[in-house]
Structures are given as C-alpha cells and as structure tokens.
Task: inverse folding
C-alpha cells in the first residue's frame, strides 16, 4: 500500500508525519523527495505557469516565404 503526503521540513530538519493509514508497529519505507514546486524549479523555468498572450493568433506566420502565394 502507498500513501502520499506533502509537508514541509521543520526546524533542525525535522519532518512530522501524522494520521498515517498504517497500524502501530507496521514496517514502512520512507522516501523523501523535493517537491516540484520549489524555488529551484521556478528559476529553471521562469515562464512556467505564466499566462501567454497572442496579438494575432490566426494570422500567418511567414506569409512571404510561401511561393504559392506569389
């Protein structure tokens, strides 16, 4: 069984997990992975999540490059 929970690292690197769906004494594996929405990810992709605007969305991009239009 897998259970995913998001939390933040507290003071002195402590992480507290509460209300887990496992019985007391049950053996579990814990893997800690940096959340994708961290500051580091924002620096790598500064435009991710930003709105995009198009001045003329239906106009031709390279009309002058088409021989058939000449």
Result:
């Amino acid at each position: 069984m897998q259970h995913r929970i998001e939390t933040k690292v507290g003071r002195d690197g402590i992480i507290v997990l509460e209300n887990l769906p496992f019985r007391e004494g049950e053996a579990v594996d814990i893997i800690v992975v940096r959340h994708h929405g961290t500051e580091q990810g924002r620096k790598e992709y500064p435009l991710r999540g930003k709105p995009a605007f198009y001045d003329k969305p239906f106009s031709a991009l390279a009309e002058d490059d088409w021989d058939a239009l000449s």
